[in-house]
Amino acid sequence: MAKRSAGILLYRFHANEPEVLLVHPGGPFWQKKDLGAWSIPKGEFEEEEDPLDAAKREMEEETGIKVSGAFIELTPAKQKSGKTIYAWSLLKDADVGEIKSNSFEMEWPPKSGKKKEFPEIDKAGWFAMAEAKEKIIEGQVPFIIELEQKLKIQ
Q1: So what's the pLDDT on residue 154?
Q2: Which of 1, 32, 39, 67 has minimal Cβ neighbours within 10 Å of its Cβ?
Q3: Under 8 Å CB-to-CB from 149, ≥6 apart: which residues?
Q4: What are phi and psi of 149, to 5 degrees?
Q5: pLDDT, tens digit (0-9, with 9 covering 90-100), for 25-62
Q6: What DSSP string runs through 17-56?
Q7: Which CATH number is 4-24+35-101+123-150's, of 3.20.20.80, 3.40.50.1760, 3.40.50.620, 3.90.79.10?
Q8: Cα–Cα distance between 74 and 26 in angstroms, integer?
Q9: What's the mean pLDDT in 133-141?
């Protein structure tokens, strides 16, 4: 079975313009990458788990933000890797300075035999829609476009 992830695309209005919250993956591979490297907070889930419940869980694990409210379901997006991402958007503001991420462990440097811990995400930010489309991983751009359409943004 192909892998599946679920996530939440938070949005807010700043000076009457919509912005979306994106996160930057932690770890050495992503350290110097910016354009095309950001993502919605998301993670994999099991077959028996409800995708929206998984998206809420992943949002809290990756950012420390608990979410509830009127979620807007977005069309799932299939990635080049074959993974399908299920996403919802939610109108909610959050202070990116307060974001707290879980962590993961990996061998670093490679073939060193040493394990090092890294945050799942190393930073988060609010971006206007045009900038967000440049920052986000290419396969997730459709989420921003669909949210724009649902918000009736030209």
Answers
A1: 44
A2: 1
A3: none
A4: -65, -40
A5: 888 878 788 898 899 999 999 989 999 999 999 999 99
A6: EEEEEEEEE-STTTTT--TTTBB-SEEE--TTS-HHHHHH
A7: 3.90.79.10
A8: 26
A9: 96
